[in-house]
Amino acid sequence: MQKIDVLVAGSTGYIGIQLVKILSKHKNINIKYLCGNSSVGKNISFFDKNLKNKKLPKIVKFKKKYLKNVNLIFTALPNGEAQILSKHLLKKNKLIDLAADFRIKNPKEYKKWYKINHQAKKNIPDSIYGLPELNKTNLNNYKIIACPGCYPTSILLPLLPLVKNKKIYYKNIIIDSKSGYSGAGRKIHFTHAKRNLYESLSAYGVGWHRHNSEIEQELKKTCKEKITFHFTPHLTPMFRGILSTIYIDLSKTQTAKSIYYFLKKNYKNKIFIKFANFNTPISTNDVINTNNCLISVCKTKYKNKVIILSAIDNLIKGGSGQAVQNMNIIYKFPESRGLK
User: Fold this and answer.
1) How far apart are the C-alpha atoms of 286 and 311, rounded to whole Å?
2) What is the DSSP string of 271-303?
3) CA torsion 203→256→266→231, rounded to 10°?
4) Deepest in the core among 93, 209, 239, 242, taking most CB within 10 A?
5) pLDDT tens column, 290-324
6) Which residues of 266-302 are buried (b: 16+ CB within 10 A; e: fewer)?
7) Domain 151-314 CATH class label
8) H/E stretch holding 179
9) Residues of the chain with pLDDT under 50
10) Which pLDDT score, from 0 to 100, does residue 1 have?
């Protein structure tokens, strides 16, 4: 049986832990190194007791010599750090990044939204935006896979096919997204220490959340006409999950029902895209602990408008699960391996 030697950098964050859980059950994976900074010398089970009985290496500080001993590197690091690591990649290495380091193709746009200079501009052409349902055939042609952000995953999966096929008007798309606090990482408990994090709902990044950049980039890439949207994220008093509510104006030939049947047909053979019955409310509870994106198309009191609901688990389909899905495609494993 083919075995892939893997290094996970940033293994102790919420997404890193979830990634280790998935990889530890994947029969084609050998986790060779778990890397961290403040956690060096600890067992990964210190951060999650569910990993206690797994035979996993102790956490070590990353050294570039480790790259000689692995095929694949996963990075779940703070923004900017995967760029530095990417400069040391060997010919045999592939990199799957779960942060934003290679999502934005224009370094100036990256600096605008992330407030730091891109430190590996030469590697950008060798990276691809890894939304597997839409970029599957191209993944293996690139050395670096940039996994989409959690919010954009929930938004682009229903939107991009509609934009590409001119099913909707391109102006005044309104996106309202709500996420569990795990999406902000472990630091959330410090940055929101004075707020009642567990019993309040709050909007943030209004008009200028970083994920605007990749949503706009991917929509523009799909549609040559001018497209405008408004995206507002919210932090909710739950640990995990995202529910995006997307308000759209339909083109004259479309109805809510025709949009529903079009999306179902478009994703007919995509195992992780699920659909609720037409005009049915959905919940994050429908997707927690899965790699699924659940989509519901709902009619409104106006015939020329439609509401699309999209739910994912931000730590899996919006992070670690999507990364493993990309890995499975690259190495020609069954796409669902390790993700059921």
Assistant:
1) 8
2) TTEEEPPTT----GGGTTTSS-EEEEEEE-SST
3) -20
4) 242
5) 999 999 999 999 999 999 999 999 999 999 999 99
6) bbeeeebbbbbeeeeebebebbbebbbbbbbbbbeee
7) alpha beta
8) strand 173-180
9) none
10) 73
Catalytic residue among 150, 223, 293, 298: 150
- DSSP code string of 124-140: GGGEEE--HHHHGGGGG
Q: How many CB atoms lie within 10 A of CB 318?
A: 28
Give catalytic status of residue 298 as yes or no: no
Number of other residues whose CB lies within 10 A of the CB of residue 118:
20
Instruction: For residues 179 and 242, give the distance between their C-alpha atoms in angstroms, rounded to a whole number.
Output: 4
Confidence at residue 189, expressed as pLDDT on a 0 to 100 scale? 53
Predicted pLDDT of residue 223: 87
- In 3D space, the residue among 326, 317, 335, 316 whose CA is nearest the CA of residue 72 turns out to be 326
**Both tokens of residue 273?**
């895209």
- pLDDT for the residue 93: 97
Q: Tell the CATH superfamily of the 4-148+318-330 domain.
A: NAD(P)-binding Rossmann-like Domain (3.40.50.720)
Domain positions in the chain: 4-148+318-330, 151-314
| 285-185-188 Cα angle (round to 5) | 100
CA distance 31 to 37: 18
* C-alpha–C-alpha distance, residues 270 and 288, integer Å: 19
Specify the residue for token string 């037409």: 278
Torsion angle defined by CA atoms of residues 44, 19, 143 and 223, in that order, rounded to the nearest 10 degrees: -150
Work out the angle at residue 42's Cα, subtended by the Cα atoms of residues 41 and 43, and round it to the nearest 5 degrees. Answer: 125
